[in-house]
Amino acid sequence: MSAVFIVFCLVIVVFLITSSFLMRGKGAFLIAGYNTMSREEKGRYDEKALCRFAGRLLVAVTFCLCLLLAGVHFEIIWLLYCGGILIPIFILSAMIYANTGNRFRNSDSLVTTESGPRPKATKLIVAAIAISTLVIFVGVGVVLYYGAQEPTVSFLEGSIQIKAMYGLSVEIADITDISLLDKSMSDIGVGKRINGYGGIGDSLKGNFQSDILGDTLLFVASKSAPTICIARCDQKDIYLSFRDSEKTEALYRALTEALS
Fold it and tell me: What is the arithmetic mean of pLDDT over 148-171?
């Protein structure tokens, strides 16, 4: 299970629990800004309506996150686009709704002048959800960007360092064989992801398992051939490949020289 998948699932669960609480008209203490108001200021607002509004917005954002989750997990790009486009649409719509008219104000506290102050609480609700969503987007974007980057292999004294998500240092003494397979990892058989990255594109990194290869550690462009296999004594075999076949072949030659 990839880190992206786990992050999405945790966020979705938290959002669902929070939204269900708010939809019942409870949990005003969760609303940033409103929970710091004085009792007199809070009395100007319909607290239950305020909570239900925040809950509905959170449900809409959670639905978009589910689309993003499905897009990342199943590598369906149009789902990612839908989720990414709908989130700002929902938030912008909520901001317009919350800031037009005297929303969620008790009737005895309405400001009758057209130039009167807008309700502060609704602005804070939308702002808080918008900021939290932005943080999620940035975090997931960093994971996707980092995961999609090709590995960098460095040769140190007595070891080989693979710099990438789930990267590691491999002792040359532990390597029993290095071979160049004239197939892509997809053709060889990726298997299922145990704890690894399998985000957008053909980049696979981390721990995988298949009936053919057993437990493996992948740093591959799964649709590109050839593929390097590094066999280790009593440890997982490592598979490496780049989108540029010449780069993969050059690395294979460097690895064989280091092993000899």
Answer: 90
Q: For residue 170, give the nearest of 113, 255, 97 by alpha carbon.
A: 255
d(CA 181, CA 257): 17
Q: Which of 75, 224, 198, 218 is CA-nearest to residue 151?
A: 218
Q: Specify the range with the lowest mean pLDDT, choosing from 5-9, 191-195, 235-239.
A: 5-9
Judge whether 222 and 189 are in contact, CB under 8 Å: no
pLDDT digits (tens, 9 = 90+) for 203-238: 999 999 998 899 999 999 999 999 999 999 889 999
> Which residues have C-beta within 8 Å of that of residue 60, sequence separation ≥ 6?
86, 90, 94
| Alpha helix (H) residue ranges in the chain | 3-23, 39-42, 47-74, 77-98, 120-148, 185-188, 245-259
Query: How many Å apart are CA 209 and CA 142, to the nearest integer?
Result: 26
Question: Which SS3 state, helix, strand or coil, does residue 220 take?
Answer: strand
What is the arithmetic mean of pLDDT over 96-100?
73
200 neighbors 77 (Cβ within 8 angstroms): yes
Q: How far apart are CA 71 and CA 60, in angstroms?
A: 17
- Asked if the peptide bond before residue 88 counts as cis, ω within 30 degrees of 0, the response is no
The CA-based angle 209-158-238, given to 5 degrees, is 15
Summarize pLDDT for 101-159 with one digit per residue, the tens: 667 777 655 544 344 444 555 666 666 666 666 666 666 676 677 778 899 999 988 89
Q: For the whole model, what pTM was predicted?
A: 0.59
Q: Residue 236, CB half-sphere, CA atoms under 13 Å: how many?
A: 15
Q: Going by C-beta distance under 8 Å and a sequence separation of 6 or more, which residues neighbour residue 110?
A: 102
Structure tokens at 125: 């609700």
> Distance (Å, rounded) from C-alpha 47 to C-alpha 54?
11
